[in-house]
Amino acid sequence: MKKVLIVLSVIILSPWMAISQDANNPIDPSPTVGLWNRFYSDEQSRLQILANVTLGKWFYRFTAEYEFNYPDTNEDFFNYDEENRPNEDHFNSTNFMVARLFQSKNGKHQYGVGAVVSYFHERRFAGGVNFVSVSKINGWKFITLTTLQGGKEVFSMEFQPGIYHDISTNGWYFRSHPRMLFNFRTGQHEVPLGAGIGKIFSTEGGAINIFFEPQYDIVNSLPMLYTGVKVLF
Q1: Quick check: 116 and 130 in contact, CB under 8 A?
Q2: Which residues pair with 226 in a beta bridge?
Q3: How far is CA 227 from CA 4, 41, 195, 206, in A?
Q4: CA 94 → CA 6, 34, 50, 64, 216, distances in Å?
Q5: Domains of the chain, CATH where assigned
Q6: How large is the C-alpha radius of gyration of the chain?
Q7: What is the pLDDT of residues 136-151, one digit of tens each?
Q8: Which stretch is the leader sequence (predicted)?
Q9: pLDDT tens digits for 189-217?
Q10: H helix or E strand, kind and range, residue 94
């Protein structure tokens, strides 16, 4: 964890300038690759790799997750299905979603609906629906991403409500964007709340977006650090 924080801090302090790409818009047309991590106490973490792109009126998103130091003794922590975790460090899930996008007449609101399919623990599939939205109101940006899916021993939901606001002209911004996870079969949930900051940097032909967001899981009474880096091409 310390090494990751040091690397991200060095990048933040580098002399790049912010650019006009909407790096905090998940359905921005720019192809995007991201690396997210939730750091918990006791060196636990959940790593998520993400890639998405918008082509015309269609939004495509792929993710894969890996868990570190998640033994079965932590029965309260979210698990996507009812399968025991085979190891403390292991692949958890991957999913692919596609959504048909729509836009309001004034261009301030975009939203999409579609389908999602997932593969858990190298053992089973699940599928369901998704909803994504982005609204811009008086300098604030409101984002939601929701998936609801079911399958054999699987009935889960992911909900991501996000709020963003630029706090400077050189790429610094405020954010509050928790990733909430619900397993309705087992009662295992993770519901973090928090707020943090991020910065957008220009690169040759793209942008890099880095954020730090301290959070607190109100269900498991657990502090965590949500941090990541996203590259737009």
Answers
A1: yes
A2: 38, 213
A3: 9, 15, 11, 20
A4: 28, 14, 10, 4, 25
A5: 2-232 (2.40.160.40)
A6: 18
A7: 999 999 999 999 999 8
A8: 1-20
A9: 999 999 999 999 988 878 999 999 999 99
A10: strand 90-103
